[in-house]
Amino acid sequence: MGAIGPYHYKVWVIGEILDKYESCKNGRRLPRSKIFVKPPEEKGKLFRDAYFVDVVIYAVDIENIIDSLEYPLNEIIRKRYFEGDVRTFMEDYGIKSKREARRLIVRAVNKFFHEIQKYRRRSKGKVA
Fold first, then answer.
1. Distance between CA atoms of 90 and 29, rounded to whole angstroms?
2. How many alpha carbons fall within 13 Å on the CB side of residue 81?
3. pLDDT tens figures, 58-113
4. 94: left (phi over 0), alpha (psi -120 to 50) or beta
């Protein structure tokens, strides 16, 4: 398997963040817990050529970032439409054009990833 593209890299990072966030939200960890995201060892080859910076973020801040996104971008992230078939998103939101639905999903992924990166840069150097 070769290197992944930027979009799929972002989808993976967001998926990992949401997995760990949902774990906190379901009571397995405290809401103020830090979430660490880094590529697992078995996926090392997959991320060989990808630029990866470990992400450290508080669980409560993930909710704030999702809430700050405009509608329907926040719903795309919250309901993880970026991981499924675009037709599911189209049916749920009454979108007729596959191209338009795909554009919204890509926009949501890019926007959320950008906000995570902004958060990471802002919190860099802060002692938790």
1. 34
2. 24
3. 778 888 999 999 999 999 999 999 999 999 999 999 999 999 999 999 999 999 99
4. left
pTM for the predicted model, two decimal places? 0.78
Bridge partner list, 34:
58
CA angle (55 as vertex; 23, 105 as ends), nearest 5: 75
How far apart, in whole angstroms, are the C-alpha atoms of residue 125 and residue 106? 30
Contact predicate 76/89, CB 8 Å: yes
Q: What is the CB neighbour count within 10 angstroms for residue 7? A: 14
The pair of three-digit structure tokens given for residue 28, joined into one six-digit string: 């397995």
Helix, strand and coil in the chain, % to nearest 5: 60, 5, 35
